[in-house]
Structures are given as structure tokens and as C-alpha cells.
Amino acid sequence: MVTLSSVARSMGRRFVGYPKPYLSQFRTLLLQSTSQCVNLRRLSNSDSGIVEVNLDRPGVKNAIGWDMLRGLQHSFEAISRDSSANVLMIRSSVPKVFCAGADLKVGTGKMLSYACNQLFVSIESTGTRVLDHLSVICFDWQERKTMSSSEVQDFVNTLRSTFSYLEALHIPSIAVVEGAAFGGGLEMALSCDLRICGEDAVLSMPETGLAIIPGKNKFPAKLFSRAGGTQRLPRLVGRSVAKELIFTGRKICGRDAVSMGLANYCVPSGEAHLKALEIAQSINQKGPLAIRLAKRAINEGFEVDLASALALEEECYEQLLNTKDRLEGLAAFAEKRKPKYVGE
């Protein structure tokens, strides 16, 4: 059995704790990845089974560069190998921003200025201003302005395949969105199973303002059924709403995201993590094998006709019939106690 602890030892890393404000709520362990801007945390005690990926690149408001991208890849791969992980939360350590995204199809200062003007304006629907996010943009300009076309293409392909890997994880994933989630940042949130927004959340796909479109993937559809924003967004909010958001690049707040089905909850600013943790704790108490197979049945069944989807559901159900967890669930119900699932 591979766990995050064994991964940490093999990497020669050490575990450290959360900052003090968190210690009063729950104990955690930190697995430092090879990236300086992505941290992989594992909660412990009663929350064992919950893992967190923390984005921490404050200088550019979590814009995704190569270092962060590699950190995300390594973190998701470690989670995929960890049989004790039951639910993932992705959050930001940077105030007022989730992730500024990544967009390399920019080559002039004029277009950079245009993008800033398009993104960082008043949000009339909420009365919120995001001018303090002026350093947030859909790309890390200093890192990427010298990239060749082939390097840009390689980065974009790697970014999209990383998001598809996240979407295909066997455990549920929750995006904790406080502040800005633009372009690729929003696409990362769309790759998660659930999205929890704070009231200060600002979400947008501004790519058409830069003469490109959201999302790209070089992998065949049978390997990764969804590519990027033009595919995931309409599956959540419907084609008409998705078209309007992508065609105009309109920014929406957390409440609007919930009303259109883009987010599951909108909570007061600063409380999105607590709400996400509450949901993660609820998932963590359920049978882990059942959760994983339910996710598979929903995701794969959504892509096929109803008859095929029902056959898939039956296949997933049959895999649970002879498990220890199913017997434990029945016994706990009969004995009127909480079940103790072991994932077998």
C-alpha cells in the first residue's frame, strides 16, 4: 500500500504542521513537493483521508508557470498512488485570488494592456472592485514572453493534460474559490467535481478577448473525454449560458456561479474553505470504494447513451457486493452505530 507518508520518505522530505490558526481545528501534515509554489497537505486524526493541494505563488497571484505546473503534476500523481486518500481539496494560500490561470498566446505589450483593461474593472453586479488584482493576469508575462511557439504549445498541452488527470482522479475533488479565477484558473476549478465559492469570487474566461478560445488538449477523446473550458463549462451550465460567458468574457460573482450551476455553494468571503472542509468530512465518512465507483459511474455514464450508462452502473454496483465495507455498512446499520470503513 502506497501512502503519502511513504511518498514523503521516498522523496527525502519531512512533514511539518499547519500554521497555528489551523491547529485549533484539526491536525495536519505537509508533504513538500518539488515545486516551491504547490504544497500537498494531508489532514490527520478524524480527518485522515482528506488531502489538500495549496497554491502559493503570491508574486503573480498564482499564475501558472512551469514550476507550479510540475508541482500540480507531482501532487496529483502522489494522490493517485495513495490508497488512503478519499477526497481532495484545492485551495489558494494567496489572499483574494484562487488562480490567475495561464494563457501563452500573447506577444505584444499592446495585447497585454488590452487584457488588463478587459479583466480588471469594476464588477457592477456585486459592487466589488478587482483593481487590487492588477498583477493578476492569465499568464506569467515575464516567464513566457520569451517562449518560442513550440514551447508555448508544449506548455499548453501539458497544462490541459494535467487538468484532465485531475478530473480523472478516482477520488472526489473540491475547488475552494476565494477571489479571482480567470482563464486556466477557472478551467482547473471546472476540472474538479465540486466548486465552493466565497462571495468575493470573480470568475471569467477572457480568452476570446485575446483572440483565442478556452481549452486545448492533444490527447484523443477516448483517453480524456473533456478538453477544456469550451467542453466542461457547457456540461455544467448549458450551451447557451456557456456561449454567452465565453463569447463575452463576462465576469461573474460567486452567487451568480451558484444560480447558473457553475458552483455548488457560495458562502461569505473567507468561509469557502470551512464549507469545503465540511463537505469533505461528510464524503470522508462514506464508504471509499462506493464513492470512487459512484464517481466513475457518473462521469463515464454521462458520456454514453442511457442503456450503456445503466450497464455501467450495474457493473460498478456488482464490484461492491462482496466488499468488507458493504458488510460493515449493513452491520453498523443493524447495530445502530457509525460504520468503520477500510476501503476493502
UniProtKB/TrEMBL annotation:
Family per similarity comment: Belongs to the enoyl-CoA hydratase/isomerase family.
Sorted UniProt keywords: Lyase
Example GO molecular function: hydro-lyase activity
Database matches in SUPFAM superfamilies: ClpP/crotonase
CDD domains in UniProt: crotonase-like
Name by which UniProt lists this protein: Enoyl-CoA hydratase
GO-annotated cellular components: mitochondrion
Stored Pfam families: ECH_1
GO biological process: fatty acid beta-oxidation
